[in-house]
Amino acid sequence: MSLLTVGTVAFDDIETPSGRAEKIIGGAALYTSIAASYFVRPVNLVSVIGDDYPEETLGYLKKRGVNLDGLQVRPGEKSFFWAGKYYRDLNTRDTLDTQLNVLATFDPVLPPAYREVDYLMLGNLMPQVQMRVLTQLRRRPRLVVLDTMNYWMNSAMPDLMKVLKKVDVLTINDEEARQLTGEHSLVNAAKIIHKMGPKYLIVKKGEHGALLFQANLMFYAPALPLAEVTDPTGAGDTFAGGFIGYLAKTGDLTFDNLKRAVIHGSAMASFCVEKFGPERMMGLTPAMINKRIAQFAELVRF
Amino acid sequence: MSLLTVGTVAFDDIETPSGRAEKIIGGAALYTSIAASYFVRPVNLVSVIGDDYPEETLGYLKKRGVNLDGLQVRPGEKSFFWAGKYYRDLNTRDTLDTQLNVLATFDPVLPPAYREVDYLMLGNLMPQVQMRVLTQLRRRPRLVVLDTMNYWMNSAMPDLMKVLKKVDVLTINDEEARQLTGEHSLVNAAKIIHKMGPKYLIVKKGEHGALLFQANLMFYAPALPLAEVTDPTGAGDTFAGGFIGYLAKTGDLTFDNLKRAVIHGSAMASFCVEKFGPERMMGLTPAMINKRIAQFAELVRF
Description:
Number of helices of chain A: 10
Oligomer: homodimer
Radius of gyration of chain A: 18 Å
Strand content of chain A: 25-35%
Strand order of the largest sheet of chain A: 5-4-1-8-9-10-11-12-13
Helix content of chain A: 25-40%
CATH class of chain A: Alpha Beta
Number of domains of chain A: 1
């Protein structure tokens, strides 16, 4: 079924304990669409870039079945740029630089063909921009997944609350779930978030895995312990891409299938962190993905 | 098969975001022996207390099948006392007071009948004291489990390395595994720890669950997300009690059964944290434990 992802396509400078990477391709919608493309095609992408983005990357995306009809290219302008540095534990990072460039005036215009999408991934963006996507839809998608962050909770909470009312799945990390609800227990936080709108909550805990909540149901997906984590950038967006891509492929929204979607998202994220940027994700095969999913199954089997 | 646990029996003052508890019973060997007693009896305990310890507690332990022949009671002296305060995230705590009292001169003398024990749990104590237990054994136990902490890594590393050579299972938290090995990746840390002696490593991650490593095998046991965590004190020792108690009951040291033992330990720990001190653990039934283990199975099933 049809899938649309809206979010950033960007350049990143990244420093981690493993090394540095300069001006590499990144952005939530890039990671999400690459991950999703292993499960469903086309992946429709809505984003904005300057005329400085590599043709090679755009060619790669097209080859992977990512439809770029909704990708605005602004002549004479520069793409969104982010620079960050991760600390040793890889869970904390400092933003060293943010240059909004084309993102400052981003208006996500959906091509007419995208307005009846079945599966919609709203990447981390200003809540007003996320809402602007929803208002262009001609009918409600089967599933709307939204990612956000503490920055919007601090600066745009009323807008965030409005958009949450229209969302099925919220993906945030544990600290953000606590901030959003004022509840330390994730079980209680999930109950409050359900009342805000999202029927499902996915709490991303990085190396500690992910939790899926629906009403009184819970599912704990571990993260695969890895010998080397090179760069966590994009892991959450990759998770979202594997998750929604698997759901779009299977078309099954039972809790049992959502669990499998979480495992598929976790497997994709476990690849993502092995190299800088999306590099590791760009050369996968279905056999490699299936092998990793089997490792996840083995990891928790008792 | 026979089980021996050596460790502290103490009084604790505990402050958590849920409230305060003053001079309640505690200590690693107390938690471990109560947890283990749900799986195997007798649980042989070696520890030391002053004459200030409640008769009621000693009576309760006996009733639960805990053999106190190895519990030294020092007339006119006071039991070990610890006071601590937990922060909101419950993962960090400050020690407010430590009064070693009887523990300062603790010499763990094993009654002759304990010197051919099959399953030995060495609770967190000075590594020299842990070694003193091992030197009294007439033959190697089937399984030796050792708990330790960063304090001994900072102050008694050579002694800790000596005792680790004689241990099968090391249980520590993730930060301690990293400190002990200098490796951030737990996969790599496990490899280094295997070379130090322990064939198995269990990394306790609190609300994020526990990891079991043996050679190239890994198992991830989740923690059960709880609506309320009242007091994490003793959760690690309770985990150890459930783990070794289940192994002593089943007598099966395959990796598959060690996984089940980790789940039993996790289930016991999930009860422990629901009330202050060991209170919650003191009123369990096999049916309650089995129900919780089923919840763990459901939590990861996909």
